[in-house]
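REQUEST FORM: STRUCTURE PREDICTION
Request ID: SP-0412
Submitted by: Lab K.M.
Chain count: 1
Length (residues): 197
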Amino acid sequence: MKKVSFITAMMAMLTMATIPAFAQEDKGFKKIDVREDFTENGFQWFHDAELLAAGNKEKSNAMTIGWGGIGTLWGRTALTVYVAEKRYTKEFMDQAEYFTVMTFPIEHSKVLRYMGTKSGRDEDKAAALGLHTSYTSNGTPYYTEADMVIECKIMYAAPFDPQYFKSDVPKNMYAHFPAGLHSMYIGEVVNAWEKTK
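STATUS: Completed
RESULT:
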């Protein structure tokens, strides 16, 4: 019995070895190490707007983001995003274990405009744009039209608390902001891919 179990286990391992380690490579992406291969200016990167996605194979949503941070936290390579309480994507982020942040080439600039002005509550935005949804090995959604995909595992999530605002900058921001307070999601970067040229 033990011999059969050992042989079965070895066959399973050999079978797994023939499966590509990263299905994204089949979609034209190559795996990168953000600590070595990420060359963008961290102070400017989010100014250009990225796409945030969360959910699973049954249902997901994405939105354009212009706020975020990259760096190191708790000894981990970290990426932080912010989502306002009335955004549909927040429902997915609050249930998610992982999320993706994507960049798009200039020819897909309409993607960021559309995703930032339409709500997934009203329509399937990805379908409307003709985007192709795929999933990482963790089940995290991303679009194959992206030119970079960064996958993060959420380490911390919490809404902003106005009692801790120390200047008028956030006070003034939220005084007339209809989408409500933002929540912070700090993710450990667990995977990253870049479209091959």
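NOTES: The longest strand covers residues 182-195.
Reviewed by: T.R.
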